[in-house]
Automatic annotation (TrEMBL), chains A, B:
Keyword NAD: no
Entry keywords, A to Z: DNA-binding, Transcription, Transcription regulation
InterPro entries per record: Bact_HTH_transcr_reg, Chorismate_lyase_/UTRA_dom_sf, Tscrpt_reg_HTH_GntR, UTRA, WH-like_DNA-bd_sf, WH_DNA-bd_sf
Family matches, as Gene3D superfamilies: Chorismate lyase-like, Winged helix-like DNA-binding domain superfamily/Winged helix DNA-binding domain
SUPFAM superfamilies found in the cross-reference section: Chorismate lyase-like (SSF64288), Winged helix' DNA-binding domain (SSF46785)
Family annotation (PROSITE patterns): HTH_GNTR
Originating organism: Ideonella dechloratans
One MF annotation (Gene Ontology) recorded for this entry: DNA binding
Domain spans labelled HTH gntR-type: 24-92
A GO BP entry: negative regulation of DNA-templated transcription
Entries under Pfam families matching the protein: GntR (PF00392), UTRA (PF07702)
Name of the protein in question: GntR family transcriptional regulator
Amino acid sequence: MPALPAPDSMDAAPAAASAGPAFSPLYRQIKALLVKSLNSGEWKPGELIPSEQELASRFGVSQGTVRKAIDEMAMENLLTRRQGRGTFVATHAEQNIQYRFLRLAPDKGPASGMARHFMDCRRMRAPAEVARALELKPGDSVLQIHRTLSRMGRPVVLDEIWLPATPFKGLTADRLAQYAGPMYGLFETEFGVRMIRAEEKIRAVAADARTAEILQVAVGAPLLNVERLSHTYHDKPVELRRGWYDTSTHYYRNELN
Amino acid sequence: MPALPAPDSMDAAPAAASAGPAFSPLYRQIKALLVKSLNSGEWKPGELIPSEQELASRFGVSQGTVRKAIDEMAMENLLTRRQGRGTFVATHAEQNIQYRFLRLAPDKGPASGMARHFMDCRRMRAPAEVARALELKPGDSVLQIHRTLSRMGRPVVLDEIWLPATPFKGLTADRLAQYAGPMYGLFETEFGVRMIRAEEKIRAVAADARTAEILQVAVGAPLLNVERLSHTYHDKPVELRRGWYDTSTHYYRNELN
DNA sequence: CAGTGGTCTAGACCACACC
DNA sequence: GTGTGGTCTAGACCACTGA
């Protein structure tokens, strides 16, 4: 009955490392189409997407099927549902779901924002590990950003951020400093790159001389080292971030579910 | 139409710090009943629960409503659905969903299991912070366990585990050592306590003399300090765990979604 | 008020596991 | 084959938003 193209199974099939067409239900095909529209920029972050009824008739399926597709996408933080208003493309520019990526909380006091200071933003050839992580060709152009986060005037975080030069052409330290709100919000509005998901590798390391000076700690002091690889739609990596956190008055919070 | 008791709204209502009855849909009431059955031990970890049809007729609702309740519980890892077989109570004793709580991975090689060594298991009065975390009265009896995890013969993790003595009466280091499989599996089968969810606070710290000797690192070496508070049904805290991880050849992996 | 997402129902059929 | 969960549909009504 539904008039859809081939049941391509390009979606989450956890157990499928083997062959086989791996049956893909209708709602996943709908979901794939919706993700495609998000990725192409047809609907931008913060915008309202068509109603479930309209999408249902557009795709020639029932509202329930569209609903199930949207349900999954809402759970993955791709979309945000608001009863009575509609369904919106999720965005990092909102205040409500903040601190989704910065997991550092102070030992005492509220988890208020931290003061940002951008030290530099340089363009250079990608070092080997950076190129590998970002799936670039060796020698491709990348941006390297250094910044700190401070609370109560004391630096707590030093970040080294690597971005592929291609989608982020024209990004400067000034541009970063002038933008109010989360960095990932700027990436969305200015460069059309939305961060969806990230993996982090966390270690305890000893502060080297340069880091110690910036964070105002002793050389050799224990620091939390967080290496984050962030992805946009379709699991494409677009940011490598290395952070050094002074955890003497802050901690990294995590939830295991 | 549905013949259910009062629409008690004791479930996840994130925005409700204010007053109001906070309308609770049918499927959440069903979910609350199912959680109650799990908590009471009517269905034990690993067991098959009644089919959706049977639950639907038992509660006097449609299958779709039961389905939605079970969907949420499956997402929270309370239940596991298996097509063609039925719905089972989730358990830590299974091999498939391992490493849900131990997030430490080796830099190279597969994330194979680690050798456990239990150093001691003592009964004592709860220190103030432990009592507070576990919501016990000051001076209540608790168990303190020390253990290490090793890979390739080298110690990587030192854990200090605090458990309330009441549900865990009779737990000994021998009992722990003899049980094959994850510790939380033993807690389920022997003591009827299932860990559902945990919060972790992570820091980088310098190794003290005692820890350094156990982990065979230098005094002052940077270690990952992980403080975990684990909860069972209804968010009741039942375990406080403090871990020190040597991250020179391992890292703590995390996913941000 | 109209329009949206949210809930609930009833029934059909499919995919899968076990006998 | 029988029984389970998984998908899909169609329609009704509820709760919420904003004009």
